[in-house]
Specification:
By secondary structure, the protein is mainly α. The protein is built from 32 helices and five strands. It comes from Bos indicus x Bos taurus.
Length: 717
């Protein structure tokens, strides 16, 4: 029998004995190896028996012998590939854990050499990078030789593969895994321009990762369970999977913290003016402002160095705080459909003082004790004035019940706003920041546009805000349909109400009302609680001049509809109470004053006073819209001798009356009973109404005209 035949016989005999007598099988193989030490099959069979028996130490020694003595055997490399795959695998099953333990028994030098050789045999870029990363983590001394090369290979692969988003497997491995190994190893010498390049790549990745919207996320996830989406309370531990990576590899804990650590390390390596210890975002921004004051005193090299420090430090403070703000006022942008719902907020001009500053005794009806003396009313409140907010601080009102962390949110808004202003305060900062934004395509970031809209409104640049809101609408149209129910409608409502408030601030009241009416198509009538006004006037005096305040209001029908009514009232009030006469605007204002009655009682009395001064009043929609008992009683009183015998045109023409009677048959059912329950006041109102009807019939018979009513006013008093 030949030597080859003898080897095969011994191996075969050992295999047959394994199920019956393992020790006998091992004895046969030991004998065979003594006779034929250079035979690979004998060695491999011994290894197989020990591996299957999960004898870690013995299997490790045999694997080491095969790796040293038979490095060219394909079977050996197949076995090593299985082991290294287990090292990269997130699984915790028994077999995977055994293979990891097996690898740990090998000498460090062999482990390093084994990983290097496996890496050389990988033709897939991602797999090769993961193997090399495994080597760098286990053997930090290899970072000097292989670290930068691996980083550049990943960035090159990202370009070759034409990745659309910076949140991809190649960038993730580079930013989260390779870059920290490189920059924290002081033996790796890196020029400043390469460090800035790496910092830029890291910032772009982390910001896009954190602010990744749910609609883009769902596109990449495919069939991933929505329950795996990030928690609204911990945006830093997202659960979506980056294509090409495992779930575990896709998770990034505290991304902002990681990014600012990279900023600090790069800053130290580039000799920036760094502060010792942990600093708040406000401290960082304050430091950058101080540094800007001395920029012109530095030579060219120092100027370039500190310019990068100011740009990157301020930019990261800006994006961090802008995100914090938007995530608080509109968390649905960053949350999955199964996340707990939170009412979004919208920043608007505060028009809550639209009713004026007159103190009202709530226990009495002022109109019942009204004096007809002229000039007793207080002047209009300052909300009628042109209160430009440019160049000065403005107070933002938030109900703490609607936003628990309101102080932190306002601080984030302030820091983001100041960071933005600093970045555009000097030409060289502006130029560099603009270059970065263009490369990152920040003009396509919906969340950032929402912040910029609010910032521009805060600054009082309303024309610019209107243009920005139109840009936002165009941006929304270019994005995929949102996955969250109502998200698109919400964005549209936000834009409409902010457009309305901007047009109002500019004095374009026609456009204000048009936008409000457009918005009403989306409104659901809120349910009033026991007839009480939805919003009681604040008892706390504002810190700043009235008319300059802003308000973060819930973007719901219950909150937005009263705001819209306030806005329209403010528009009509400005026209109704001017020296020139505008009965239509005055009538509209009276109709709107019914909302939240009696908050608008003082302003209603001012309207009545103006009507008394005019001597007559024409508003043919009066009985279509005015239902407030106090108002109806007051107008009935105006027609009496005691009330001044004011000539009132409050009914539509006869044709309209017939039509009204036809289409409203049955609507007034029960009015008689209500009137009887109204008591003496209703009796007075009924009598006054009858006189109004008689006066209207006389007018219909040609007694006068709308123009004539003005001329005949003195005679009617």
């Amino acid at each position: 029998m030949s030597a080859q035949g003898d080897c095969e016989f011994l191996v075969q005999r050992a295999r047959e004995l394994v199920p019956q007598d393992l020790w006998a099988a091992k004895a046969w193989l030991i004998t065979a190896r003594s006779l034929y030490p250079a035979d690979f099959n004998i060695q491999y069979e011994m290894y197989t028996i020990e591996r299957n028996a999960e004898r870690t130490a013995t299997a490790g020694r045999l694997l080491y012998d095969m790796f040293v003595n038979f490095p060219d055997q394909p079977v050996v490399w197949r076995e090593i590939s299985i082991i290294t795959s287990a090292l990269r695998n997130d699984s915790q099953d028994k077999q995977t854990q055994f293979l990891r333990s097996l690898f740990e028994t090998l000498p460090g030098r062999i482990q390093c050499e084994m990983l290097l050789k496996v890496t050389e045999q990988c033709f897939n870029t991602l797999e090769r990078s993961e193997m090399l990363l495994l080597l760098l983590r286990r053997f930090p001394e290899t970072v000097v030789q292989h670290g930068v090369g691996l980083g550049e290979a990943l960035l090159e692969a990202e370009t070759i593969e034409e990745q659309e988003s910076p949140v991809n497997c190649f960038r993730k491995l580079f930013v989260c895994d390779v870059l920290p190994l490189i920059i924290n190893n002081h033996d790796v010498r890196l020029p400043a321009n390469l460090l800035y390049k790496y910092l830029n790549k890291a910032a772009e990745f982390y910001i896009n990762y954190v602010t990744r919207s749910t609609q883009i996320e769902n596109q990449h996830q495919g069939a991933q369970e929505t329950s795996d989406l990030m928690s609204p309370s911990k945006r830093s531990s997202q659960k979506y999977i980056i294509e090409g990576l495992t779930e575990k590899s896709s998770q990034i804990v505290d991304p902002w913290e990681r990014l600012f650590k990279i900023l600090n390390v790069v800053g130290m390596r580039c000799d920036w003016q760094m502060d010792k210890g942990r600093r708040s975002y406000g401290d960082i921004l304050h430091r950058m402002k101080d540094l800007c004051r001395y920029m012109n005193n530095f030579d060219n090299e120092a100027h370039a160095k500190y310019k990068n420090q100011v740009v990157y430090s301020t930019m990261l403070v800006f994006f961090k705080n802008a995100f914090q703000y938007v995530n608080s006022i509109q968390p649905s942008l960053f949350q999955g459909p199964n996340a707990p719902s939170q009412v979004p907020l919208v920043l608007l001009e505060d028009v809550s003082n639209v009713y004026g500053d007159v103190e009202i005794d709530r226990s009495k009806h002022i109109h019942k004790k009204r004096k007809l003396a002229e000039g007793r009313e207080k002047p209009m409140s300052s909300d009628d004035e042109d209160c430009s907010a440019k160049g000065r601080n403005r107070h933002i009102v938030i109900n703490k019940a609607e936003l628990a962390n309101s102080i932190e949110v306002l601080e984030s808004f302030k820091l983001a706003r100041e960071s933005w202003e600093l970045l555009y305060s000097l030409e060289f900062l502006d130029k560099e920041f603009t270059r970065i934004c263009l490369a990152w395509k920040t003009d396509t970031w919906l969340w950032l546009r929402i912040f910029l809209n609010d910032m521009i409104i805060y600054q009082g640049q309303y024309k610019k805000a209107i243009a920005s809101l139109h840009h936002l609408a165009a941006l929304q149209g270019s994005l995929p349909q949102p996955q969250i129910s109502g998200q698109g409608t919400l964005e549209h409502q936000r834009a409409l109400i902010q457009l309305a408030t901007c047009h109002f601030a500019l004095g374009d009241y026609k456009m204000t009302c048009e936008k409000v009416l457009d918005l009403m198509c989306y409104m659901v009538l809120p349910i009033q609680d026991g007839g009480k006004s939805q919003e009681e006037p604040s008892k706390v005096k504002p810190k700043f001049r009235k008319g300059s305040d802003l308000k973060l209001l819930p973007c719901t029908s219950k909150a937005i509809m009263p705001y819209c009514l306030h806005l329209m009232l403010a528009c009509f009030k400005l026209r109704a109470f001017t020296d020139s006469r505008d009965d239509m605007a005055l009538g509209h204002a009276i109709v709107l004053l019914q909302h939240e009655w009696p908050r608008g009682e003082a302003l209603f009395l001012k309207a009545v006073s103006k009507i008394c001064q005019q001597g007559n009043f024409q508003y043919e929609n009066f009985f279509n819209y005015v239902t407030n008992i106090d108002m109806l009683e007051e107008f009935a009183y105006l027609r009496t001798q005691e009330g001044g015998k004011i000539h009132l045109e409050l009914l539509p023409n006869q044709g309209m009356l017939i039509k009204h009677h036809t289409v409203t048959r049955g609507i007034t059912k029960g009015v008689k009973e209500d009137r009887e329950e109204g008591g003496p006041d209703m009796g007075r109102l009924t009598a006054g109404t009858q006189r109004l009807r008689l006066g209207r019939n006389s007018r219909a018979n040609g007694v006068g005209s709308p123009q004539g009513s003005s001329r005949g006013a003195p005679g009617n008093r």
